[in-house]
Each structure stands twice: as structure tokens, then as C-alpha cells.
């Protein structure tokens, strides 16, 4: 009788213990679920706050640049130069802010912001051209001996052209209307300036240094290599060429059968292009590390193979307009 009572008592104790354990597990699961929901809510809140902060700051900085540009109208030359210099600096800061924010922006937000920034940069160039009109550039072709990167002497002005005034020279550098030449610019000539290469055919170009922006227009059968570009590279009407540069952003239009050796901290964008292929940037020269530091670009972040094709919207299907250069076909040796 006592033994039976003891067994019943033990079974009752075990049942109560198991029930208590199940209740504790259930309660722990509720607590963990509540914590997870809280973390998810906080994470969404942080993301929303980041989006709101980015939109607010981007809009304010954009408005400040537009106000500076509108203030150029009717102002004297000294005031215009000061406003354009300030607008240029603010545009570079806005570019950096956009690239620092790229990780949490949606593709739509990124494209809209990049388009807005490109419009600002075009407005800045237009305002500079209108307020501080430049005379035509007179560049001197340089031979392979120029690889010693000695400073070039300006060529005598051609008929109908003249020397670039000091204000314009401080803003822009480059080469134009040349065929079958080896062309170089030193760091002193392009550092923190806008560089324009236009109407070049069968030329080799080496740009040593860190320009602010790089514009390539009507480039055919050329090989163009440039040091780190602190903001954007714009390519338009380029064909049968090889390009190489680090930059924050790449915008490529109307380009065919061209290889791009790229280091980009944002994303590359192509539009109205065919036969464009990409590989990691592989050119090197003695002061490349120093120029990377000047540019402010991250050496660790390189989105060379993340390309947005604005003419290809089929989700999940690769664009036929660009490819990755196979490793066996990539160029690694550039100059003797």
C-alpha cells in the first residue's frame, strides 16, 4: 500500500515537473519571438531613418548647389569664380555622400540620385562655360619620350585658337582632335581638375594623377589609362577602345566594342551600349597609392562587375550588352 502510494506520488511529481518545463520553454519562446519582432522593428526603423536622413541631406545639398549656380547670373567675374569653385567643392562632397550611402539605398533611389547628380554636374559645366567662356585648347602632342612625365611646353596657337586663360586652365585639362599620338599628362597638370578627352583616334593616353572628373567623348581605337578619379567618369560615343581607371561612378553612353578595366566604388551604368566588357583595374604606376589617397576612393570596395544597363529591364536575365572579360584574356602588362 505504501509502495503504490509512493509510485503514484512520483508520477504526479514527474508530471508536474514536465508541465512546468513545457511552460518555461513556451514562455522562453514567447520572449524570444517578442525580442526578434522588436529587433526587426528597430532595424526597419533604422533603415527608414537612414532613408529619410539621406533624402533630406541630399535634397538640401542639391538645393544649395543650385542656388550657387543661379547666383552666377549677372555677377562679376570674381564673384562667379568664387561661386563656381564653391559649387564644384559641394558637388564633390555630394558625390562622396551618395557613394557612402549606396549600401542602404534601393536601386531606384540610387538611380534617381545618380541622375540628379549627373544633372547637377552638367549644370555646373554649363554655368562655367557660360560665365567663364574658354578659348579653344591648344595642346601639344607628346612622344613616347614623354613617358618621363616631364612638364610639356604649350604648342603655338593654331589659327583661330589661342592660349587658355588662367581661370579656365585651373578648371580643365585634356587633349582634343588628335590621331596616332602617345599623349601624357602629369599629376601637376590634372590633379583635382576636370579632364576632357575628345575626338581622339588611334591614340595611347596616360593620365598620371587624380583628376576630379574625366570626360571621354568621340574616342575611337584608343587606349586610355587614368589614375584615380575622385568623382565621376563620363564616356560618350566611344568605340573599339580600351579604357582603365578607378572612380566613384561610371556613366557610359553610345559606346560599342570597348573594354573597361575598372575600379568603381559605386556602380557602373551603361545606356545605349553594345559589346562593352569589364575587368578589374590593373594598370599601375609609381605614385598610384598616393593618388588613391588624394582621391579618397576606397581600395577595398570595387564593384567592377556590378553594371546597370538602363536599356535592359528584364529581371533575372543578364543584359546582352555587356560581359565580363575572361581572366585568360585580361591585359595585365600595359607599358614597356
Structure characterization notes:
The strands form two sheets. A seven-stranded parallel sheet has the order 1-3-5-7-9-11-13. Strands 2-4-6-8-10-12-14 form a seven-stranded parallel sheet. It is α/β, with parallel strands linked by helices and 336 residues long. Helix content is 40%, strand content 24%. The protein has helices at residues 2-70, 77-100, 107-131, 166-171, 187-190, 288-295, and strands at 172-179, 182-185, 194-201, 204-207, 213-220, 223-226, 232-239, 242-247, 249-253, 256-264, 268-271, 274-280, 307-309, 322-324. Residues 135-170 have low confidence and may be disordered. It has six helices and 14 strands.
**What does the average pLDDT come to?**
80
Largest sheet: 7 strands, parallel
| Quantity of strands, as a count | 14
Query: Can you tell me the residue ranges where pLDDT is under 50 for at least 5 consecutive residues?
Result: 135-170
The number of helical elements comes to 6
Question: In one word, what is the shape?
Answer: globular
In terms of DSSP E residues, the strand content is 15-25%
Which descriptors apply to this entry?
alpha/beta; seven-stranded parallel sheet; 6 helices; 40% helix; 24% strand
Give the topology.
Elements: H1 2-70, H2 77-100, H3 107-131, H4 166-171, E1 172-179, E2 182-185, H5 187-190, E3 194-201, E4 204-207, E5 213-220, E6 223-226, E7 232-239, E8 242-247, E9 249-253, E10 256-264, E11 268-271, E12 274-280, H6 288-295, E13 307-309, E14 322-324
Report a brief summary of the structure.
The chain is α/β, with parallel strands linked by helices. Helix content is 40%, strand content 24%. The N and C termini lie far apart (104 Å).
